[in-house]
């Protein structure tokens, strides 16, 4: 049964960035213990696996330099396309702003936060709480081959997909030594993938 679940997760994966997204989705399914579903009569109907692809843009004001200082950070995530789930989510995004004390040598520290994803379901009119998902998330970053890769994990605590786990992977270009020693890193954009299961 676990093999069937893993195969279904692989079939539902969105082919972004080659095989890597499929491997991440498959690893997430194994890591978080996705099992075969119970019969419909034994559990309430819940949306299934959702996968989204898009970009994340981060701006830093003032720029991040080697020495730690207060930095206002703005994060804008846009998912151009989503597939799976209950079929209603077409695309989505998230926006966050906060200030922290950081420098180029502290960009890899772990974090805990609450993130709200908003979803476009194709319905017009005012947004409803079911058109968003609020999740308690945590993550830490690793520098590898010129990128800072941040896997974010968490659980949806409110709204659409409540009770489901999530994995978001965000690889961003790593700041150069020249940026850190001069005016600083003021912004960066990279691809991101989100899997809710």
From TrEMBL:
Domain of life: Bacteria
Protein name: Uncharacterized protein
Organism: Streptomyces eurocidicus (Streptoverticillium eurocidicus)
Organism placement in taxonomy: Bacteria, Bacillati, Actinomycetota, Actinomycetes, Kitasatosporales
């Amino acid at each position: 049964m676990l093999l069937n679940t893993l195969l279904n997760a692989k079939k539902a994966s969105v082919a972004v960035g080659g095989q890597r997204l499929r491997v991440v989705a498959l690893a997430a399914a194994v890591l978080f213990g996705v099992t075969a579903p119970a019969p419909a009569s034994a559990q309430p109907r819940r949306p299934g696996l959702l996968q989204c692809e898009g970009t994340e843009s981060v701006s830093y004001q003032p720029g991040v330099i080697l020495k730690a200082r207060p930095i206002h950070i703005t994060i804008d995530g846009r998912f151009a396309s989503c597939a799976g789930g209950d079929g209603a989510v077409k695309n989505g995004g998230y926006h966050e702003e906060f200030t922290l004390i950081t420098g180029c040598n502290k960009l890899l520290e772990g974090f805990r936060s609450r993130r709200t994803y908003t979803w476009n379901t194709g319905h017009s009119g005012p947004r409803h709480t079911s058109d968003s998902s609020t999740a308690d998330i945590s993550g830490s970053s690793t520098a590898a081959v010129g990128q800072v890769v941040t896997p974010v994990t968490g659980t949806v605590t409110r709204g659409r997909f409540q009770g489901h786990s999530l994995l978001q992977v965000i690889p961003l270009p790593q700041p150069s030594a020249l940026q850190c020693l001069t005016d600083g890193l003021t912004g960066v954009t990279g691809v991101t993938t989100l899997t809710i299961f």
